[in-house]
Amino acid sequence: MEARPPTFVLPNSPSCRVLDRFSDLPENISVDEDETGRIPFWPLLRHLLQEPISTATHLIDRLQTIAANAEGCHADDYGSLKSFLASDLFAANDFFGSTWLNLREIALDLPLYFPEGQLGLLELGHPLCLSRGQVACLVVHQFLSSAVPQRQDDGYQDFSIWYASRQRHPTAVNMYLSSLFAYFESLPEAKALIEDHKAAPGDPGRYVTYELHGYDEVSLEGGSLGAVHIDYLDDYNTESHLPEVQGPGGAVVVSANKVIGFGQTATQEEIFVGIAPEACPAVLVAPHLTDKTTITVSGARAMLTVTGQRRGISWVVRPSPAPTGDFNSWIQGWRGGRLLFMDALEMDMVDASDKILPDLLPENIDRELQKAITGFTAYPERNAVWSGLWGCGAFCGDAGVKLVVLWLAASAAGVKLNVMLSTEQHEMGRQLEALVKECEGMSTQSLREVLSDVPEGLRKLEILEWISGRVSGSG
């Protein structure tokens, strides 16, 4: 996979030039046209945004025009977006009379928020801390599909993937559009966002922070095994992202791909990012994850609470503070939790014999431990982490091995591990609880050595049972 370019170019960059495909720019607006007929994109985009929009049909027509000028891969029929804009949920709000006007002003403030017209990719030791206004501006432009295409890695840079009629998972797309428009309705006025941005307050809760983290070697020698708590859930849910659940030092593990971001279905990663629009700009600045890096997004508010995954999802819109009135009051009720993006090994892509479980190959255990420790030590105030069966879905990881790896990594990082298990996974939880009790007083290094001795042919529960027997002396 080729590395991404070092910067993401925004529409107001002097280097962002496009063809005025429909001759929309009035003649009285003077621009510099180059030898290929291209003009700076920003004057054209600004004109398109300033033109009145009063109906869903007008909006979709404008989105199509913007996407065509940006030369993006836009959806020809915009059927899913049309259906959403015709729904009762959308009709209940005065979108074109108030919300759209506010979004337009936020979008037009792009040069004030990002005068250089570009974003650098995340680098180790250099977090990107954006004001709520900056984040809102980027999210609105992702909705507009106003950035020229800049990705060659199958990652998505804007929300146009949710607009076409043909969707692999229409319910999930409807959920993400519900989240996005709930976010739009909840935003304060553009003027208040700009004033807050210029004030540059020192409270970290007023920002969304995107950060790349690298691996600092942590020895298992001399360490002791930490606490584990099992959350026995009836069904998967997203409450672990809420700041009132996490506390100031918590994070929820997002089972990420190397190319992080949102999508069109309802995987765990797509859900966590798609229901928190403030997390979505991460795709503009996130480099591809390596074996020794993870990414955190801190402060992005989840607009929905979701139950279930994949085909079995349902959601409710979370109450948000009123966007009018005192901005300080709004921001106090707006805070979001911390998302920790960790990519597990794709075990179905690992070479191994039929007898040897690829999860148990020494190099794979070390890699997964390294990845999890990188994530769990990513920020200094850490004290707890929430995780499901990381890497055990589409990546085909073994749940028994992964639970031990997560426990070892959390112990090495000094954080409490909270394991979230849905109904069909409860037996795994009970067996892990039994193992934790059996390993009381045992060192992390000793458990790591026992994990290396698991016999061929064992899987999932059998692995936890075998380790318990080995530790107790009966195995």
UniProtKB/TrEMBL annotation:
<keyword id="KW-0378">Hydrolase</keyword>
<dbReference type="GO" id="GO:0004649">
    <property type="term" value="F:poly(ADP-ribose) glycohydrolase activity"/>
</dbReference>
<dbReference type="Pfam" id="PF20811">
    <property type="entry name" value="PARG_cat_N"/>
</dbReference>
<dbReference type="GO" id="GO:0006282">
    <property type="term" value="P:regulation of DNA repair"/>
</dbReference>
<dbReference type="GO" id="GO:0009225">
    <property type="term" value="P:nucleotide-sugar metabolic process"/>
</dbReference>
<dbReference type="GO" id="GO:0005634">
    <property type="term" value="C:nucleus"/>
</dbReference>
<dbReference type="Pfam" id="PF05028">
    <property type="entry name" value="PARG_cat_C"/>
</dbReference>
<dbReference type="GO" id="GO:0005737">
    <property type="term" value="C:cytoplasm"/>
</dbReference>
<feature type="domain" description="PARG catalytic Macro">
    <location>
        <begin position="244"/>
        <end position="423"/>
    </location>
</feature>
<feature type="domain" description="PARG helical">
    <location>
        <begin position="92"/>
        <end position="188"/>
    </location>
</feature>
<protein>
    <recommendedName>
        <fullName>poly(ADP-ribose) glycohydrolase</fullName>
        <ecNumber>3.2.1.143</ecNumber>
    </recommendedName>
</protein>
<dbReference type="InterPro" id="IPR046372">
    <property type="entry name" value="PARG_cat_C"/>
</dbReference>
<dbReference type="InterPro" id="IPR048362">
    <property type="entry name" value="PARG_helical"/>
</dbReference>
<dbReference type="InterPro" id="IPR007724">
    <property type="entry name" value="Poly_GlycHdrlase"/>
</dbReference>
<comment type="similarity">
    <text>Belongs to the poly(ADP-ribose) glycohydrolase family.</text>
</comment>
<dbReference type="GO" id="GO:1990966">
    <property type="term" value="P:ATP generation from poly-ADP-D-ribose"/>
</dbReference>
<dbReference type="GO" id="GO:0005975">
    <property type="term" value="P:carbohydrate metabolic process"/>
</dbReference>
